[in-house]
Structure formats: structure tokens, C-alpha cells
Design goal:
single chain; mainly alpha; Small_drug/metabolite_transptr; transmembrane; transmembrane helix; membrane; transport
């Protein structure tokens, strides 16, 4: 259950990162409000997951999901570069997440 909470928290992190981009430096009210609402929900779920997961594991996976998700949103929605070097970097982050999960005792 903790990993499911962590997954949803990470996806919400992607959502708030994207809405922050849409807020245009917090100058647009709707996306700004959405950013802070998604942040609060993401942090709340992360804190619940941390009840039973080690800090390092939970935080690394949460930030990794957010980083990879934001990377994909950037490419698929915002038209950012998908250069071989960026794709390799994303693959290394994914590999780190898998190793973190496999090395966790929870």
C-alpha cells in the first residue's frame, strides 16, 4: 500500500510541476491554485508512505517519479528535446529507481 501511495504522490508531483509551468511564474491564478493544491496532496501522500518506508527510499522514488514524469510531459506535451543524451539520463534515473525499490526491505 505504501508504494501505491508513493506512486500517486509522484504522479501528483508531475501534475504540480506541469501546472507550475502553466502558471507562468505564478502570474496566472488558476494554474497557481492548482499547483499548490497538487503540491499539498503530493506531500500528504508522501508523508503517509513514509510511515512504513525508509526516508531515503521514499524520497528518492518520489523525486524520481516526478523527474521522469516531468521529463516525459516536457517531451510529449511541451515539445522539448528528446536527444539521445537526455534519454540516457532518463534511463539512468529509471534504473536507479528500480534498484532503490529492489534494495528496500519494505
Amino acid at each position: 500500500m505504501a508504494y501505491l501511495l508513493l506512486l500517486v504522490a509522484g504522479l501528483l508531483e508531475v501534475g504540480w510541476a506541469f501546472s507550475m509551468k502553466l502558471s507562468d511564474g505564478f502570474s496566472r491564478l488558476g494554474p497557481t491554485i492548482l499547483t499548490f493544491a497538487l503540491m499539498a496532496a503530493s506531500f500528504a501522500l508522501l508523508s503517509l508512505a513514509m510511515r512504513s518506508l525508509p526516508l531515503g527510499t521514499a524520497y528518492a522514488i518520489w523525486t524520481g517519479i516526478g523527474a521522469l514524469g516531468a521529463f516525459l510531459v516536457g517531451i510529449l506535451i511541451l515539445g522539448e528535446s528528446a536527444s539521445p543524451m537526455r534519454l540516457l539520463a532518463a534511463a539512468l534515473i529509471l534504473g536507479g529507481l528500480v534498484l532503490m525499490k529492489l534494495s528496500s526491505s519494505s
